[in-house]
Amino acid sequence: MRVAQRMRQNAMNEAELRANAQTILSTIHQSRPKTTTSAYGPKQEEFDQFCQRKQYSDGATVTEEKLLLFLVDEDETRLAWRSVRTYVTAIADLYRTQKALGMNTHPSPREDNVREYLESLQRREAQRDKDNYADKGRDTLLDGYSESEFGRVCHELWVHSGTSTECHFRTLEDLLFGHYLLTRGGDRRATEISDLFTFEFAGEGSTRCMPLIFTTRAGKQNQHGRLETAGAYRNRNPLICILGGLSFYLLCRWDLGSEPFPDFSRLSAYEDQIRRAGRWNQEQMVGCYLNSLPRKFMRTMAGHPPQIGCFEIRRAGVTPPEVLLSMIWPELDRWRGRFGPGTEQENDLAAMGSTNLLFYLREVVLQDSVILMKKYPGSPVWNHPVFRHPAYAPFAQQLSDFILEEERPSQLAVLIQAMPVLADYLQSVDARNEARTSQLRTELTEQLRATEERLAVAQSSLFSSGFNLQLAAATPTPATTAAVAVDAVGQVGPGDGSRSVSTQSSIIDSRATSPRAADTIIVKPEPPPQYQMCRAVKTVQALWINVFFGVMILGIVGRCRIAVVPIVASAAGALANGLCYVAWYSDYPLHGRMVASPFADAAWLVQEAGLPFYSYIILTRILLSPQLLIFKTMFWSLILSIAAIKLTILSLRVYYISEPSADLLQLINHLHIGYFSGTAIAECLSAGFLLNNFRVALRASEHTPLRGDLLKYLMRSTEIRVALLALIGISRTITFTFQVTAQSATTLSGQFDRFTYALETLFPVVMYIDILASRLIYADNARTNSTSALGEWPDRTIRHRETIAYRPSDRTIKETHPLS
């Protein structure tokens, strides 16, 4: 009983599995492309007839042996190896069907023998082509057509359009689609109006650019519904323009033929899902197509330069009148403005794209007809009423006159096309300059080496012979024309009343011929040498010494906001000096110097305008309203003014590096005077508030039992040290007034300005000492005040950053330290 039940269950399962396999197999066959079904069906029928003739006992069951015999007997003699491979694919598909239905238990026929047989056929065909001297240019770049040949084909289609007009224009459009969009014939023949649309490509040139966009989701190489797009621009030649061919083809179908104009109200029933309402908006679609379409290729195919901005169609320069446009596809006007994202519009993007394309094709028909009507006056397409309308003749004459004018590309198009050439020229100029510089460097090196050799020879002869040295002065006198005798071993002695002179470090060409022979040489005075401070030294000083000291100070005193000011100022100064060397003292390329200069000025702004923030942080801790509000208002007004002046200097210096000018240098110097004056005023403002606070603390100290040396304490206070910074700012303002060159100290005032700036660079060290001294005095006062009686202090407020803050409201004493 159990065995029978199990057998019955197995039979039911087997039947269910076969039924499911048949259902899936039927689904697969139904979803196949029609071309695949039509290609496999006849070949499978041939195999079935072959098996019937052979009268096999298992009928048309596919096996490897049957397949090989079928290929040899039936198809080897009349088919190429590619066709034989197609037969193998079709019979293998029949085998999979039989196996899914449970009719075939044999292994797959596409095993090693069949595969090797196909390879042998391929080798044999290749050898046969070689023996028969087959054309090796077939299926290569030579196996194509030129643009002139393509134009002749289009010309013949226009010439013979008198018979079967729609057929010729359909063939023309099919040819244009294949040429511009590179689509397969099956994809072109399955194209629907909803697959075509257009929108404007901005920035393409002086003419409005409305390309033809073609989308498809099915094809031989696209079996899974992947969205594929292609596009084409309007061609400069109307004969081979894809937009013109499409417009005349649709004109024949809808206006000259019997086919009605499409009803866009039913378009959404078969529209692509991705462009239905609620999926993509117009901006997303435009962005997608702009990124995916090969726009450079599209421009070249349409006869335009490959650079963006050069799109220009001469015949599109005259817009047709509205009365002529409305005569082409009159039913189209009822859909104007109906589709779109508006509240009263239908949000159907496919319909909007298709109607926009048709509205644009109206203009293309009228503009291209002016040229094509003269070339092909016998075409039946000119029987359309629009070409006999009274307004068409003036429009055609205006457009013809516009086209006959000398065609000159717009200035923008010329500039865009010249940019690559200009870039190449500048690169070649840079290469030549580098080569010339390298050559000059080599020549100078050789000259210096030769000079060193001559100097070595002169020095060796100097100590082996004696000579007389006569010093020539501006006004010759007996005292200044004395001779000095030097013996052969270098001993110096007076001769003829003259004084001895050491000549060991002099560079003299001696022409003595004997150890005691004397030569007379005239040495003329030279201008004194000029030296400038090395930027690298100040960079190392600011970066290593000052910043390193700041890190050490932070390690000693702990977290301290005010110590950040000298650290940041020192780092900015190091960066500014390094970039200044690149911008003004090096031989780097011009663009590199122009980039380094503004960053150097910005770093100087951080350094020079950042130092007053040391006083700012102190004053914000010790001042009370309304003095604090007044100080902040004045301080930030000065800082903003300083920053504005520095930004102006920054931009002018970049321009000065590219094009030096004496007037521009004078303007920069005047702005620097205002800049340093502003920094000096800011520092003086802070110093004034600090010194006023110092005076209040001094008066308060006379009535308090402070211990220790009060004068020493006050002299070491922070107010005096920071006030000295105002002195440096004033000095830089005065010295920079007399500057006559850019970034070079060639005068006494320039040298003194460099010295003042060096002091400013070292000033963070003074701040570090001030921080440590303040902490030390604060600790001493804390120890001293801790032993004092509270009743001995008067009822007054002492606001000093290193003394005691007394609050009369509750008569409590609180020790404060603003630097913490």
UniProtKB/TrEMBL annotation:
Domain named Ndc10: residues: 98-267, 270-392
Keyword DNA-binding tagged: yes
Coiled coil: none
TM annotation in the entry: 539-557, 564-584, 604-624, 636-658, 670-691, 722-741, 761-778
Record carries keyword Signal: no
Top-level division of the source organism's lineage: Eukaryota
Molecular functions per Gene Ontology: DNA binding
Keyword annotations of the record: DNA-binding, Membrane, Transmembrane, Transmembrane helix
Name by which UniProt lists this protein: Short-chain dehydrogenase
Organism: Purpureocillium lavendulum
